[in-house]
Protein 1
Amino acid sequence: MGLVVQKFGGSSVADAKKVMNVAERVTDEYKKGNNVVVVVSAQGDTTDELIEKANEINPNHSKREMDMLLSTGEQISISLLAMAIEKLGFPVISLTGWQVGMKTDSNYSQARIRKIDTERICMELDKKNIVVVAGFQGINKYDDITTLGRGGSDTTAVALAAALHADICEIYTDVDGVYTTDPRIVKDAVKLSEISYDEMLELASLGANVLHNRSVEMAKKYNVNLEVKSSFQRVPGTVVKEEVDMEKMLVRGVARDNDVARIAVIGLKDEPGTAFKIFSLLSKSKINVDIILQSIGRENTKDISFTVTEGNLNKALEILEQNKDLIGYKDISSSTNLSKVSIVGAGMVNNPGVASKMFEALFESSINIHMISTSELKVSVLVDRDVAERAVKAIHDKFDFTN
Amino acid sequence: MGLVVQKFGGSSVADAKKVMNVAERVTDEYKKGNNVVVVVSAQGDTTDELIEKANEINPNHSKREMDMLLSTGEQISISLLAMAIEKLGFPVISLTGWQVGMKTDSNYSQARIRKIDTERICMELDKKNIVVVAGFQGINKYDDITTLGRGGSDTTAVALAAALHADICEIYTDVDGVYTTDPRIVKDAVKLSEISYDEMLELASLGANVLHNRSVEMAKKYNVNLEVKSSFQRVPGTVVKEEVDMEKMLVRGVARDNDVARIAVIGLKDEPGTAFKIFSLLSKSKINVDIILQSIGRENTKDISFTVTEGNLNKALEILEQNKDLIGYKDISSSTNLSKVSIVGAGMVNNPGVASKMFEALFESSINIHMISTSELKVSVLVDRDVAERAVKAIHDKFDFTN
């Protein structure tokens, strides 16, 4: 007998029929003799509807009141799922974030989990109750409701799995696992049966959209075995864990991220501290920078190019313009309509041929590369957005992804 | 500087515009230099929509999960109202039932308040925050969410006013006060400036629908001054308090209640214990009986007639039929399509002429009376529903209600 934590997203509980489907998945696990903790998100569009309600009244609402409002979405889901499980005749109890002892800091709308007081949840599991927990929410030291921000429900599930020493944490989503690339783009994308935390982290941040990085980081930290599975199809998913057979496949997948804009700062003095000045200014404004590239410019100057998300582009440009004298540069240019295409794989670092194989694939398809960035686990290139799908296909074809 | 508790019902916060209107009412009070605690109900149809969602999944849901679900309605309202008050530039904080220390028993869906831990709310008032509290909800000793049942938000407001020793508890509703009868039926109904707790209790239970009895009982117990006011018009309302000038007006009002069905148990043995048997059986099934009338029947038998709410009629008949041998009667009959019309007034007990004046009004309008019930504060008659409005008008015309 083990302990299984399951997490179902908003689209998995969007209506009464889907809630019943989840109840069946949950009770099937319980029938095997396992203890089951289920984490759910708000139903379908509930969160968007609540945001709209708030903005209609006051678009400049405090984050504290917004968290008070948004946390109702998950509370609705847990009670409805509990009712569905009651209908199937199983013992069940729903618990909100504060009832489950999910203690966070006071950073409303993007709170971090501090600790979980598992007393209540353990008591309910001892009573053989299926425990349905509201994802995405917690309370701070003032007993005020907080929400965990993007990927919050996944994080709730992984944090509970860690605190309860669960045997596995199953993340149910629209897709049935992690693929070598987006199956909507490349027909013969292959589902991975296993992937390491680090590879998953690179894939997630590169736009694979299956698991949020934060939950994978936490799973890695506490060594929680994750499985990404389909809410609707009953097929094996992808297990994310510490060690996978690294020899088996060099490249795990090909990812694409469209949310990328490039800024070039041109004509910087070639002296120490220029990069520091630029990136400390951006970091103070909480702008994350992804790929950074520095090149030698003309007449004792250098150029620095880097990418940010499209949402941060204007703010970043503004900061750079306001600090033109401090930084000391000649010109700034920016471009959008770009995509980042990446290959990810733990075995890559010891196989220098991997990167050149990727460049070869792009060359054969006449695709121009704007920037290149490499790490131990990935190679990323920046290309025009209108050729990005073609780039993904070409790279995917070049590597052998048969499992 | 005083402390004012205000309560706004679901129709007062039904949409963004109405929420802003409430925010203005609240901040006007705050601008006078008062501490303000505001209790709100769920928006408009929210509660009905949540009930529908639940029933779609499982009509036989547990009450515990239903309370978990329904309590989100008020939580949505408090956060939206807080945002509206923020927009007007005033310091505000919203608090749920559990945050405000509303401790109840574990009788889900109709919990009773046990005590209020006012620490948090006092702290917020000390900080000069306007405190917006979710009505209708609390928590039990297991830290599970409970709801207070019908009239719950009024009860929350009065309980808070009592615990915080508020100067006044203002109940804002669709109507602008307590009238001598339903102004939709009788055009020249008069608004009362004052009414005693006891009179209000009789009027509420007789179908005046302005304040729920439970909140008036609590106001009486803790001597909380209530004022019933309009959410939309800025006019004085009706103050409900301990002592009013009893000499001023004998009859306070005329009320009508359509939710009434009559059961007649015919041919009971004329021996002790028959009434006890009937009413203890009904009370065990939590069926409230209103008017009871016993009359002599034929051949050493007696008949007992009584009224119940229409919703309890079938259940009551079933219980009586199942226990026919135990009770010992010949026949049962029942009738619906009835109304109870009542006059209420504290001065009534010392003025026997009041009842006969009421009967005279009905006689002059050729309205037949099926049952009569009197108490120190009221005279009620049962009439056919299709003449009930006419009865109210005739009685109201007979008495002089000019303030």
Note: Chain A touches chain B at residues 16, 19-20, 50, 53-54, 56-58, 60-62, 64-66, 68-69, 71-72, 75-76, 78-80, 82-84, 86-87, 93-94, 96, 98-99, 120, 143-145 (CB under 8 Å).
Protein 2
Amino acid sequence: MRNPLDPPINERCGPTQRVDTNHARRADTNQARTWIDGWPQLARSEIVDRTHALGRVLAETVAAPHDIPPFDQALIAGYAVRAAATVGAGSYTPLTQPLAHAVTRGQPMPDGADAVLPFEATTSGPTGQIEATGTVAEGDGMEPRGQSLRAHTPALSYGRPLSPEALGLLAQFGHQTVRVLCHPWVRLEDSANTPLLAPLIKRDGGIAAPAGTEPDLILIPGGAYAQTEFALELDGLALRPGGEAGLGRCQNVPVIRLPQEPLACLTAYELLAGRLLRRLGGRPCALPHPTCQVPLTRKISSAIGWVEVVRVVLAGNGAEPLGSTEGGGLVTACRADGFVIIPPGREGFGSGEIVTVHLLHARDDDW
Amino acid sequence: MRNPLDPPINERCGPTQRVDTNHARRADTNQARTWIDGWPQLARSEIVDRTHALGRVLAETVAAPHDIPPFDQALIAGYAVRAAATVGAGSYTPLTQPLAHAVTRGQPMPDGADAVLPFEATTSGPTGQIEATGTVAEGDGMEPRGQSLRAHTPALSYGRPLSPEALGLLAQFGHQTVRVLCHPWVRLEDSANTPLLAPLIKRDGGIAAPAGTEPDLILIPGGAYAQTEFALELDGLALRPGGEAGLGRCQNVPVIRLPQEPLACLTAYELLAGRLLRRLGGRPCALPHPTCQVPLTRKISSAIGWVEVVRVVLAGNGAEPLGSTEGGGLVTACRADGFVIIPPGREGFGSGEIVTVHLLHARDDDW
């Protein structure tokens, strides 16, 4: 029997490319991923101040305005010398250095110097002159002009997320502003899952679509009073929990219907909606969680053809599965240290097998 | 000889516990870590709206206000039945179900029902009545009241960073606001490295100390005109790059002096200042980068007793070291995919040896 509680399929919005009303014939998750990865990245970009650009995605390629370093520079602190003048120097045969300018890292090398002699390899002569007690070869302890980067060579590529390092380099290049991709506009229809979904959308770089604009992505959680007319293209997935999800479109805007049960909603968001949102915004598509590889403390079973997402806690050096795939709601999600994804080709993982855990928080281990 | 370019040591601020002016007698990084880990977490907390709490650190323990689930609930969609009434049912022996309420996941179980029969295991009888074509055991497809969590049991512990899952659970518990640790107040003295350091501080949860307040942490980059009088306790570390760093205090506030050269400044921030900042704010101390384990494409040498931080690019399935430890500045930092930390007890890593790479960006690999 067809599930009488399934949401009605709405076909008012243009022709439907594929509607599968039978949940027993679910789309596999590879079809869903192909569908997601078929949507293009946003073309909209904006100029923002560098001091507000952390984590934004670069929408231009930034080249070095000049050679880096712009001059021959010291790489260590010491005395800039002519390497030839140190030949034969040693603790018992200190050699006076005709050229000996104290330099610190990053300072320009004085004219004529071609190496930096560390302070430890120097001593003071009887009249205060600097003497070498060791030798250096030409180029030691210094970095020639342009060695890191030649002028006008690309240093930061289009599409790169802006890290602190990249923002430091932009400042070094004299950029006060930077062109970045816009945040994708998301229309999230209101439901009991809004408090869960809003921070996920924020994490993945989405913002609420401004009133009166066409969004870049529409999310319709189960239980929301659907205000959007859309055509479902994939209805029901071989995903557990979260298989009630559906993928479709409203005119040219992608629409993802999410399950009502919170753990299923979360799982479908993570594997489907989050991926599409990151893709639209030009971020890496993969799940944003850090991962670790650990053995399972006991086996997990799964149905062939299904992707199953199992919450685990880290115990000792292993990952311990938490109860059933579908029970426990957000309590289970919050109790977990992470989750394991069982791919469709597997019937599960054996006890002791090494699995990839997607971690929900940073680990507190050390360098 | 003492390096004449070393910054003068300022002892105007109370007695100095340990001043080592000789950079050849550097403190090892374990001393630095012990010093860092001796500072206590902030005690200040504040109440914020749940919708602004993503990533903040919980400063209370939140208990379930009632049993979770609050009633016996369906875990799957189907017909809520009495399990006993399905005994003997099969495709050729369908059994009429006296009690058969359609339920979807998360709905309360009706009185008298003790299992959920999936729709696939049902059929319509001649008069439209629901018949079972399969059996269920008591408890199948449902979750008893309180199974996830009993009322008044802690669900989210003090000190937990607030993930989307945790915010969803707070909403489910009816919390509109939540008590979180304050952002640590950082006084960053201005220097050419401010554009690099400001986003690092932001990433680690610090904010600029409000005018007129005592900060929780003072950072003095090399080249800054030091406005702070402080006593150095560890001056110079066996860390490369970044060994010019110093650790000290101004009255009861920790002070970290950072090197002037950008790559050294970045490295000392990551291994020292970032750790202390995360610690003060109650976050996990460890480096916040995701990691991966890959083989080195060629060997890296290092001096015993020193921690060396080597930038690498990921190439093929391996990590390729980028030039020398200290050259290249932020260009090298931006070219790298990550960095490898060589611990003090090692003389380096061999070619082909598996190392932990701290990644500077999310990987684009798939589930």
Note: Residues 29-44+183-280 of chain A form a domain with the Molybdenum Cofactor Biosythetic Enzyme; Chain A fold (CATH 3.40.980.10).
